[in-house]
Amino acid sequence: TKKGIDIVAILDTSKSMTAEDFKPKNRMAVAKDTLKEFIKKRKNDRLGLIAFGSDAITKAPITYDHSIINHHISNLSIGEAGDGTAIGLAIATGINRLNQSLAKSKIMILITDGVNTAGQIDPISATKIAIKKGIKIYCIGIGTKEGAPIPIHHQTYGKRYARHPNGQLILTTFDDTILKKIASMTNARYFNATNTSELKDVYKEINELEKSIVETSKSVEIIELFPFIIAVIASLFLIKEAIAIRRLTGVKT
Q1: Greater model confidence, 212 or 201
Q2: pLDDT digits over 55-68, tens only?
Q3: pLDDT band at residue 144, thresholds of 50, 70 and 90?
Q4: CA angle, 217 then 42 then 134, to 5°
Q5: pTM of the shown model
Q6: CA-CA distance, 19 to 28, in Å (whole number)?
Q7: Which residues fall within 8 angstroms of residue 69, CB to CB, at 6 or more apart?
Q8: How far is Cα 63 from Cα 45, in angstroms, rounded to an integer?
Q9: Cα 164 to chain centroid, rounded
């Protein structure tokens, strides 16, 4: 029976997610924390989790066991799926997770801070497949268009920031054009979150837009017919016996 909502969260784990424009935390830490808060509000839904970079890895299949999802969110690490940003591949992996879903509503929440730079699957081609499967893709762009420096950890000097050969800071790139298109094509929404409070508001709005459809059980009054059937049979038996007795009393010896 179709019911509720199946949700797959797709989280970018590329190195640019270490950018610290969400101070004192980086983008990755804030994305993980706020995603957990969102999950708390989806008690009646099944959830799955995908981490992606230049590859896409299913961390947890769709399940009602939200503790498993939260466990894997906590243990996500920067770079575990590669350094690129394969948005098309991430969407295709999400489609595979939702392909057998019988839920009334199937959605993905794509959380990324970059443009598509890797993968053999074009994001728009993957999105067209999602449309055929009845999947909506909410896109959350994390970060600002101005970009932010990317911290690196040097064995000798400790925390430093990535720089070009000329010494200029390397800033994260951000282009939400493709994310807006993906959301629009699937009848969903695109959001840009540049700080923690905005990201919380994004999840709150998605929560309001995608209310769970929980089927309420209908009480059915069951009328037990067995006693009535027994009574009818007994009545017919008594009538038959009465007729037989009358016939016997009417016979002359």
Answers
A1: 201
A2: 999 999 999 999 99
A3: confident
A4: 80
A5: 0.78
A6: 8
A7: 9, 39, 47, 48, 49, 60, 63
A8: 8
A9: 38
pLDDT of the residue at 230: 60
Give CA 30 to chain center in angstroms: 18
Phi/psi of residue 56, each to 5°? -130, 125
Please, are residues 127 and 182 in contact by the beta-carbon 8 Å criterion? yes
Token readout for 145 is 């268009």
Q: In whole angstroms, what is the distance from residue 10 CA to residue 35 CA? A: 10
Cis peptide before 123 (omega within 30 of 0): no
Binning pLDDT at 50, 70 and 90, where does residue 217 land?
very low
DSSP 187: T
From the number of C-beta atoms within 10 Å of its C-beta (0-12, 13-18, 19+), residue 231 rates as: exposed
Mean pLDDT value of segment 26-35: 91
Instruction: Report the residue count for the chain.
Output: 253
The model's pLDDT over 75-115, given as tens digits with 9 standing for 90+, comes to: 999 999 998 899 999 999 999 999 989 998 999 999 998 78
- Identity at 110, one-letter amino acid code: L
DSSP letter, residue 175: -
Question: Which two structure tokens, joined as six digits, stand for 198?
Answer: 């905005």
Whole-number Å distance between alpha carbons of 162 and 142: 19
Pick the closest to residue 190 from 141, 124, 156 (CA basis): 141
Quick check: 109 and 79 in contact, CB under 8 A? no
